[in-house]
Design brief:
By secondary structure, the chain is of the alpha+beta class. The chain contains five helices and four strands; from the N terminus they run H-H-H-H-E-E-H-E-E. A hairpin with a 3-residue loop joins strand 1 and strand 2. The N terminus is likely disordered.
Length: 196
Amino acid sequence: MSFFQSDPQQQPQTYQQQFVEEQIAQALESQAKPVAFAIHKEIVIPKAGLPETEKKSDLEQKVAELKLQVENQQAVIASYRSSAIPPQQIDSHLDDLYTLLEEQSRDEAWAYQVETAMSDFLIMADLPVQPQLSVSTCKSSVCQFKLLQPEGVDDLPSHYWRNMTDKMMEQSWWKQFKFTSTTSSDDSLTIIASTQ
């Protein structure tokens, strides 16, 4: 009796091996079909139920509305331009205010009230750092304040003076001023304000 032993690599597959391979093939095929379908799928945009002439008239109406909006905005811009003060006139007005500050007599009651309000604001405002008030001068309708970066503070945040003036302008005592001008650098802020 002789036994023939074949190469193990050439042995026929068992039923279990064949079943596993079929399951793998089916899984791969089922995963590949949606991808192939998505690749070959055409995108169809449904046509609106409106005839072509109605679509055009809707678009023309929208274009007309947009043109009207643009014209309105241009009119608003033109009105702002006509009411804006030219830079030369602003500089001239500032010069006038500084001259007025030098020449005006002091209204002690009003000046003291405004200077005290500024000092109180700087103490009570929720500021990350309290600036040093180096100049606080009020006369009868004009005030000048100069604020400095406090000693021991190396750098103030870039928005520090802006945030402080925004908070100051919300104060009821500040709303009496009709004209204000601020000039700031990294370490100082100068304010001149007038009730006239």
